[in-house]
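Reference record:
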Amino acid sequence: MAMVGSLERKLLATLIHPPIPGMIDKSLSSDSLTRYARQMRYPHLGEEGQRSLAVSRALICGCGALGSLLANTLVRAGIGKVRLVDRDFVELSYLHRQTLFDEADVAAGLPKAVAAAEKLRKINSSVEIEPIVAHIGPENVESLCEGVEVILDGTDNFETRYLINDAAVHLNLPWIYGGCVGAEGQTMTIVPGETGCLRCLLPECPPLGSTPTCDTAGVLAPIVGVIASIQAQEAIKILSSNRAAISRQLTVIDLWQNRFLQLDVRDLRDRVDCPACKQRQFVWLTGQQGSRAVVLCGRNAVQLTQPGPGVPLDALARRLEGIGRVTQNAFLLRLKVDGFELSLFPDGRVIIQGTDDPAVARTVYAKYIGN
């Protein structure tokens, strides 16, 4: 057999991992591999897996509690490129669980994606970090997915998760769902065509106000660490060409009660007639589903119209007690909190007074109402 020279090896590597326009050459020298020596000693990864990670690309949607831990772990692991997308700014109340940020970021009023990128570049200068300060919506989600091989969920609401699910199934991209509230978290790895998707599991988005948020039910940092670690490990399996090892379960963990539950979802896709997987109906991606924002002229307010019915206002009022000042009559519920006034109607409409920016209105809505 003829010997393969260094030039031929380089050409072969290029065919296996085509270069990405604008990306730095990610081929690892012997010296640069030293950083990952302990990681490569794990037999299922090895040097070959590490070299695969070095030319891989990941999108992290949301850079809060889960997202900041995901970014930290993947950048330290040597992922070639990490794209961070978040619409929010760093606040003091985030610091107990969002590990990439500090008090200086709060004082500077930095967007989370920008603050995270600054920290991550100091952690691993060989990784390309692309911070994007934006709301993820039907108009930009596919472009945000361009060039990546896996999507990681660090979002705080189901509406965005359904949109990500539509985009991932449409583009045939793996994505890893994750969520935490209180001391409980859950995660599921979704590989279009191989596993069930989010709409296989939950065909319809939970109705308005039916699920708690971190601001209404609280959240403990340890559960964030557990769920983010599972998500990151699943991403490393995918990006290192170890797809056979990915989880085929929905994992639910309650750290306060010390409960660990796994539901087998291997045949979920075969058991349901999924609107996304089977029928190829991407209603979130096309904008047929999802909140619609209208700036109310002269009122410093934004109206969000949510899909589907809301929960009864009485139940929502009970959940919001202690969050801010709550008043209610037969026609609407009002919540005054942090300089905003939210007026919620039985038909699912919400008017958020105190801003004329739809992105800010969506952030306020996600914090206090959720889905």
Q: What stands out?
A: DSSP finds 15 helices and 14 strands in the chain. The first strand starts at residue 57 and ends at 61. The CA atoms of residues 120 and 347 lie 43 Å apart.
